[in-house]
Write a structure and sequence with these properties.
The structure holds two protein chains of two kinds. Chain A is mainly alpha-helical. Chain A is built from 13 helices and two strands; from the N terminus they run αααααααββαααααα. Chain B is an all-alpha fold. Classes of the chains: A mainly alpha, B mainly alpha. The interface between A and B is large, with 67 and 69 residues.
């Protein structure tokens, strides 16, 4: 595999988990972060179940649901969620019966919380925003990357909330005196999420100043959904147009200049900000501010930008 | 008369005492998305109210039926659950499964009805919001909470279901106005502008509601 391709993949994984973090940037899947991170063990279990659920949903959406109505697709995600939450609930019950009473508090909480996973917004949103427009491989990668981002936040939240709120880790008591109950409460979850998002933004700003990632301010603007939906549709249309153009070229035509360039030894690496595939990135800075643009102007801007690149 | 009082109790429970969004974070992602669009807040909240209320009533009936017919659940647990005789919690899992399944059927039925309505801009808007309103953690938590509280009052279930929509409306409106002010505020450090400020603001609102409810947490 060429070095550059490897680099692009590595960067896009980092981007998905960092710059497009599902919780701290896209603000999806917040409920688990509030209710399932009061203990580290529960955060880990919930992350694991959510990751597998997300992976299956994106695979199903990418393979079979592309031509379905949006409302029917949503029902399928929910049905998968029900089956998954039910299966996980039964497994935890059986496991609880086997291990005895040691984890009874976590189990009781999990029993109450797991069914809520059926309506996990992270699975539905990622499937609708990404999986239904992309192939299986890209969807699996997207699911894994988002699961990594999700799990990372859940673990940090679990560590801080159990450690500072309960004075324990994995149920083992660390201190009797140091217990800040606010961390354990739901408002503590919201505040902690806000501070984590700010910390992430600080890191992104630092890295963007050094040209490692794109601009954090643009990435964390809060009202991205409309813009994002429009952008993804445009990406989809442009990709389809590209494929159509490629399919029209006769076989005997000499190789185009771009392919000849590819055959040459490695080109000088481009800045990281332009290496990401457009369809996998949600808030790239290459796009102009879109609030005042119509779809037609947006399309023209985007096509112009793509040609420049 | 007592059922009406129960209904009011249920609504107060859902909106103020245990504001489901602030004391449990239920439907938080959907609330933040809805808060970005002024025009859809009322419709989404109304749909959440309808779905929560109908789902709460249907599930209450099923719950009462299943609780009175414990043999059915025991048979289901025995038939499909390993070691289930030693696991009383398996019944909670079964209950949750049935509640979720009923909600799914309800969602499909409503969509089917809307699907056959004549094409219009309202129909499109409806279709867009039904999924988000019906299938979120806030709606599915109502029958679960009723079950965990072992509540059998129709009035309370109805009040809690309708109250869920009202709670969503109140919270979304507060966050919506807060977001508007936060966007205009140039004094916010750049690290906190956008998502972080919105989440911190939501946390402060949740803190205020928690204090108002006497420091209670839903879970």
């Amino acid at each position: 595999m060429p070095k550059q391709t490897k680099r692009v993949k590595r960067e896009s994984v980092l981007r998905g988990a960092w710059l497009d973090n599902p919780m701290l940037v896209q603000a999806i899947g917040l409920t688990p972060a509030i209710i399932a991170t009061t203990s580290l063990r529960m955060a880990l279990w919930f992350s694991l179940v959510t990751a597998i659920h997300l992976l299956i949903c994106e695979m199903v959406a990418s393979l079979w649901l592309k031509k379905w109505h949006s409302w029917a697709r949503t029902a399928v995600y929910f049905a998968i969620g029900i089956i998954f939450a039910f299966g996980a609930g039964m497994l935890f019950e059986v496991w609880g019966g086997v291990v005895g009473q040691t984890d009874v508090v976590d189990l009781l909480m999990l029993r109450a919380i797991l069914p809520l996973m059926a309506t996990s917004s992270i699975a539905a949103v990622r499937c609708e925003r990404f999986a239904v427009y992309n192939n299986l491989r890209a969807s699996v990668r997207d699911a894994l990357v988002n699961a990594v981002g999700f799990t990372a936040v859940m673990i940090i939240m679990g560590l801080l909330r159990e450690g500072l709120g309960h004075g324990s880790l994995f149920g083992v008591e660390l201190t009797e005196t140091m217990r800040i109950r606010g961390f354990w409460m739901p408002f503590g979850g919201f505040l902690l999420l806000g501070f984590l998002a700010a910390a992430l933004k600080t890191i992104l700003q630092w890295t963007s100043q050094r040209g490692i990632t794109t601009d954090a301010d643009e990435a964390m603007e809060f009202c991205p959904e409309d813009r994002q939906e429009r952008l993804e549709k445009i990406h989809h249309l442009l990709n389809a147009a590209d494929e159509y153009e490629k399919s029209r070229k006769p076989d005997d035509e000499p190789a185009p200049e771009s392919q000849q360039e590819e055959a040459q030894p490695e080109a000088e690496p481009k800045p990281v900000s332009v290496l990401f595939e457009p369809a996998t990135s949600n808030f790239t800075r290459e796009f102009p501010r879109l609030d005042d643009l119509t779809i037609e102007q947006l399309l023209a801007e985007f096509q112009g930008g793509a040609r420049d690149e | 008369m007592s059922e009406i009082m129960y209904m009011i109790n249920g609504a107060i429970y859902a909106v103020f005492l245990h504001n489901l969004l602030f004391s449990g974070g239920l439907g938080a992602s959907e609330m933040l998305r809805a808060a970005q669009r002024n025009s859809e807040i009322v419709l989404t909240s109304a749909l959440i109210s309808v779905f929560s209320a109908v789902s709460a009533l249907l599930n209450l009936g099923v719950n009462v039926l299943l609780t009175s017919q414990r043999d059915i659940l025991e048979w289901l647990s025995w038939r499909y659950g390993i070691f289930s005789a030693q696991l009383p919690g398996m019944q909670v899992v079964w209950h949750a499964f049935i509640f979720a399944f009923i909600l799914l059927v309800l969602y499909l039925l409503v969509n089917l009805v809307v699907h056959f309505l004549p094409a219009s801009k309202h129909k499109l808007l409806f279709q867009k919001r039904i999924g988000a309103a019906a299938l979120n953690t806030l709606v599915i938590s109502i029958p679960l909470l009723l079950h965990l509280r072992a509540n059998t009052s129709i009035g309370f279930a109805l009040g809690m279901g309708l109250g869920a929509g009202v709670a969503f409306y109140v919270v979304t409106l507060l966050v919506n106005s807060g977001m508007h002010v936060l966007r205009q505020n140039k004094a916010i450090p750049t690290q906190f502008s956008g998502v972080p400020a919105t989440l911190v603001y939501t946390g402060l609102l949740a803190l205020a509601f928690t204090g108002f409810a006497g420091g209670l947490s839903l879970f």
